User: Fold Pyruvate, phosphate dikinase from Aerococcus christensenii.
Amino acid sequence: MQPFIYAFSEGNAKMRETLGGKGANLAEMTRLGFPVPKGFTITTHACLDYLSHLEETGEDHLKSELTEQIDKAITHLEETSHKKFSDSKNLLLVSVRSGAPESMPGMMDTILNAGLNDQNVNILAKITQDERFAYDCYRRLLQMYGNVVYEMDSQLFEDILKQEKTQAQVKFDYELDLQALKRIVEAFKELYLKELGFPFPQEVKIQLTDAIKAVFKSWNNHRAKVYRRINHISDQLGTAVNIQEMVFGNSGTTSGTGVLFTRNPATGENKLFGEYLKNAQGEDVVAGIRTPSVIEDLKTEMPEIYSQIHTLAHQLESYYHNMQDIEFTIEKEKLFFLQTRNGKRTAKAAVKIAVDMVQEGLISKEEAILQVDPEMLHQLLHPTFAPQSLREATLLSAAGLAASPGAASGEIVFTADQAKAWTEAGKKVILVRNETSPEDIEGMHAAAAILTCHGGMTSHAAVVARGMGKCCVSGCSDFSVNEKEKTLLTPQGILHEGDLISVDGSTGRVYLGQVATTPAIADESYQTLMTWAKEKSRLTVRMNAETPTDIQTGFKFEAKGIGLVRTEHMFFKPERLREIRRFILSASDEERQQALDTIRDYQAEDFEQIFKLCQNAPAVIRLLDPPLHEFLPHSDEEIQQVATDQNISTKEVRTRLHQLQEVNPMLGHRGCRLAITFPNLYDMQVEAILKGALVVKEKGLTPQVEIMIPLVGLKEELHPIRTRLELLIQNFLKQHQVTIPYIIGTMIEIPRACFISDQLAKEADFFSFGTNDLTQMTFGFSRDDAGKFINQYLEQGVLKRDPFQTLDKEGVGRLIQIACEKARPANPNLKIGVCGELGGDPDSIAFFDEIGLDYVSCSPYRVPVAQLAAAQSAIRLAQ
Ligand code: PEP
Ligand code: MG
Assistant:
């Protein structure tokens, strides 16, 4: 017979998957001889078994195999605890608690005091000689049981309690006297009859069975599902159920209950941090009805208990090599530990605790690195909203994507120009658009945050904002902008230009009005941890950046060079835009050449600056990628302006615009396709790169030039482009009699390129996977429109993760693997990296490390995240 049940004395900490976190740790504490009330755990497999049977057949009962094992376990519990259900001298009552393999605090259900009924309440009163206490336990059971097992509205119970408190003229539950509690118990029982048509079950066995089923079912309640989705926890794990002898923190003033962290979870300070309530049960602490005392007070109130807690807590921390979150109960001066788990903590605390523990000799550097969630580092590098302010703020929407972390408040503006103008006038603004386009770049730069109604995690707004380290919420689908009216339609009403909103780029939420922020802190512990991380990783981390500020940011985080300069981002300053438009619109070859010459000079200056900032570190410069129409004007006003600038008619501008318009621009005339049809475009850019590099070389530096050709799908595209550029470079170097180290590579971002990577590898010195386009084209999901359905896909479980945020290993990952396997034998010197957004995602980085890529490249503010993830991956691979 399959064991569905383990007594606490039979399990251990390694059995998380079977016993859940709580069960495994209770077993471990029991094994270590800690004061743990007796009990047993029903496995997660029993839960999954029950739930699938329920789903398949609609039959809501526990299998006979399981009920037999429960009966045996109860008998064993009665023997070891020397108590019995309904025993008039040694009455057994139990708690029934959930506990999943991954911690999901407060998401599932718990029932306390199971075993009480009309008869046992009197036994309990007699044994404890405290009738008030007994009735207090009973009313708690009635309330929890009704709510959890029968889904009765908890407000109905609260109303009855409130009515009694009003009548007694008291504020707190614990101030109610015995008579009031007796009336409440009666009223609760009547509520069962009224609401359900049947009474509260008096039979203990029924109570237990129903409580177990309810806890199993709570695995699938809405909030648990949402929590799992947000935290990427599998739906297939199930919850274990822990049945444990009750100990009573509410049995008088020498009793109490509390929660304790072995170190401060907010600051990381190495000092016990916790609270307790005297004469109370666990939920009283959580419910916040009474203000608990700080744990230090226990030192004077119960010195022996305090010293015992202190010793045991430290033992647990040393044993688990991690900061512990402990629940304890004191029953008549006797201490019990009810739970221990790794404590949740802020980023600041996480880093400090990890580093301190190494310095205290408690853990290794490797363990410290593994202890900190890389994504948490954002909290240290970007401002966040102050928790108190956030609790009081009015939420406008939670539908947006957390596109680029940070937190900012500001006045709404609807155009990039307005963003620039108002910022220059000293205001803080949030640029709100349905979607952004490259023309908005200056306004995006000026704004404190960016909010878009459309677009996913790799939409223009998201990519650019991350590059800038700017707070951004994208794809906030329940908002819409009316550009003409300059209004923002939200589920809470219409907002106008100048209205104050707050945007949380770490959660995707938008609030009305101003929310206070707390600034970023990168302290000494952070620096220490990051130094260790860099020592441990194999994969190097570069940055995607083109502006001096971004490049400096990336180098501040010790990026090992630039993995992607998106040259098109350099075209959007007004004077440059004018020239590129002249190139696109002019009918005269001469004028077109003139336009290119001017742009070349501009670009040469940019590249010079980039190489200078890079010192001797490599910089991958990608040649022009977007379709040309992205540079053309769209609004009537702008078309008129361009016509005047270029001395042509608006009709001509419109005609050209029309000619260039594409139905699917992402699959259109872009990337290397531009160079096949307008070869002098790439010629111009490469000349500019060489000119810039030459100036820097003459200053004594050695620029490492890496030229990258985008969107290649055919060898027949790459070969002629490379041949032509190579000739141009050789002529340039000969003419200037210099040597500049350079390599030419290609992006791999089209599925076909992965399959012919051996052919491409012969024409390339390096590959860089463009996972944004590769994901888009592998799935056929538009990277700009997928936001419209991806949320539902995630909610319905069609997708487990958004593939634009985390690599789809089976599909896109497999393609990358195939590409590497084919390419390496064809060109053993080939350097391989990633420059799509996934280059900054920890899970994806682990995959890239495992398949032996040389580097990942991501936006500057993600560089530390990627560095820590690379270190974790190296440590895990070595284990
Ligand atoms: C990519 O496609 O992954 C990439 C880096 O290029 P872009 O996002 O500029 O298309
Ligand atoms: Mg691309």
Q: What stands out?
A: The longest helix spans residues 589-614.
